[in-house]
Amino acid sequence: MHTATRIIFNALFLLVLSVNSFAQNTPTSDFTDNGDGTVTHKKTGLTWMRCALGQTWTGTTCSGTAKTYTYATAKKQTANFAGYSDWRLPNIAELQTIAERDNYNPAINTELFPNTASNSFWSSSPNVDAYGGAWYVNFSYGRVSHYLKVSAYPVRLVRASQPFGIGLASLSTDFIDNKDGSVTHQSTCLMWQRCSVGQTWNGSTCSGSASTYTFAAAQRLTSRLADYNDWRMPTASELARLVDYTKRYPESTINTTLFPNTPSNVFWSSSPSVSYSDSAWNVDFDSGYVDDYYRSGAFPVRLVRASQCLVIGLKPDLATTLSASTDRVQLKQNLTYTATVTNQGTGEASNATLIFYFPPRWTNTVSKPVDCETDTTSYSYRCHLGTLAAGISASRAITVNFAQRGATSIGSLALTDSTDSDKSNNLSRLITSITP
Q: Which of 277, 279, 315, 345 is the most buried (most CB within 10 A)?
């Protein structure tokens, strides 16, 4: 929105905002509850603290009040939590993936993130176009904007199970050029039209000018590009993934190699505003804002459709490592073996299983996880890990002792119901020496 309109809009919003939350449309099933105060988003591989800093996870909810920080202090926040020390402040592209614009007050899935303050939360991303400013997500109703770094906002930390998390820009290498005026985003499996509606793809660029539509007219748009008839308007969250937060005015905040001749303008999404019946969400590719505006406004549109990930070739790649608390023990001395399975691939692994192999007959089990079943025929333990998203790791530890001296080989094997792209790294072994 324009600045003057935004000031009036914010004032009105404070008057009409209620404490009632709308139904949650972010599927809780898209996340894995790690049982330790964290959840992992299966599609992005990001693991989130369920509580804001200052709150405490009780096992069922977040107690206490979230602390607030200036931007400089917020960027320094780290934690040792749930067995990891690489927690950090999310960037603006990552933070808005948990914004739920079908809710307000707060605009988040409160089953996943209970007792979230209806407040702005800092991201780690400075605004490249405004001195002293940094990006935030307002979890009162879902707006993405920037403000002065001296402001004090809450913080929620994240860790990237994948190597780098989500970047601030849509790289050309993130997309497949379908050679028909569309590109497919490999991490979201969304197929985008390269041209705005009203423009024409001529084989190398988008010619002509983008048409503008009211929200109602935009919802009626159809297309037969590339012989598909299921093109639609993107949701606000989908459209926001195209924003390039590394660009500064007067550049369009979008990858113009992928989407040439894109006007630096507000684009409609399909997401209606839940706080105002006459408004809907849009993404401003001039400033990078995600905001809502009156449905009577006339803005351009870019269409999208869901494609099949299997066409892109997203596959898991399980790898396992095995370690022991020591490599030499005496007879009947307890020894703990820890196996870690990591999905190094690009797709999720379904029904992932970890198997420990021990010498038969003369291994005595002291303790094992409850999800590890004993196979007496091969003297192994089969541990059920469930679904492992790309970049996710899972570990299990078993404590044993041995009733016979000598050198013995211990193994761990990772399996999945999915097609494993490289099985050469699924098996890990080590040797333990047992002395009298």
A: 345
